[in-house]
Write a structure and sequence with these properties.
alpha+beta
Length: 132
């Protein structure tokens, strides 16, 4: 979606089948509202091997800014993961040899990570949780 089109999501629905209508119905039904903006720099690599496709993403400089608007702001924000990045390895079937070597070389340990959850914890919106 074009960033400029984000403003349309805050407007009343224009009827079934219009852009974003399904999303705004789900938001209204669940009484959701924006609370923060998560920003990060992503590096992504994709390859196709004999075993299928594989994708590596690294999200760095993950930051969070309080927000109550359906809009993107160019704000610095609060760091979410200090001097770390979020690495995601996606593949189908068996783990590709390149990923196996990466995990072994850097002694990587799988763990769940949610940039949104880390962000709301960093802002103090969920004090009972800790940073991962």
């Amino acid at each position: 979606m074009d960033h400029g089109a984000l403003g349309f999501l805050g407007q009343p629905t224009r009827g079934p089948g219009t852009a974003g209508d399904w999303f705004m119905r789900a938001v209204a039904l669940r009484r959701l509202r924006p609370v923060c903006q998560i920003s990060y720099q992503r590096t992504a690599r994709v390859a196709v091997t004999g075993g299928g496709s594989m994708r590596l993403t690294m999200d760095d400089h993950v930051r969070v800014t309080p927000s109550s608007q359906l809009a993107f702001a160019d704000a610095g924000g609060t760091p979410v993961v200090d001097e770390r990045f979020i690495l995601e390895l996606k593949y189908s079937g068996d783990m590709p040899a390149a990923f196996t070597e990466l995990v072994r070389t850097f002694a990587l340990v799988p763990q769940a990570a949610s940039k949104y959850r880390l962000g709301v914890v960093a802002l103090g919106y969920m004090p009972g949780l800790s940073r991962q």
